[in-house]
Amino acid sequence: MLSSDKGRIDAVCSGINKPHSSLRGKVEPFTELEIFFVKGRGALARLTQAKTIKVRPAFYADYECLCWGSYF
User: Fold this and answer.
1) 7-28: average pLDDT
2) pLDDT tens digit string along 44-56?
3) Sign of CA pseudo-dihedral 14, 36, 50, 44
């Protein structure tokens, strides 16, 4: 993840594939989120909550735009 104040954050989202997970469908590329995470013992943080702030559908509508966005 990329944060405006902390830069790059390496985190894992455990249990996201479970049917009743609160994170399911929220953690998507090019989506602005308010996230809450717990710093683990290692280098990775663990994502605990996410709230969608802004979805950018233009990235998904235009393939070239999606490719350029994925490049950066």
Assistant:
1) 84
2) 889 888 898 988 8
3) negative
**Which residues fall within 8 angstroms of residue 8, CB to CB, at 6 or more apart?**
1, 2
Q: Could you tell me where the DSSP H helices lie in 1-72?
A: 58-61, 63-71
Q: How many CB atoms neighbour CB 15 within 10 A? A: 13
- Which domain CATH number covers 32? 2.40.50.140
pTM to 2 decimal places: 0.64
Q: Which domain holds residue 9?
A: 2-71
CA distances from 71 to 8, 30, 54 (A): 16, 12, 20
Give me the chain's average pLDDT, please: 84
Q: Are 47 and 23 in contact (CB under 8 A)?
A: yes
- Selection from 49, 69, 46, 44 nearest residue 59 by Cα: 69
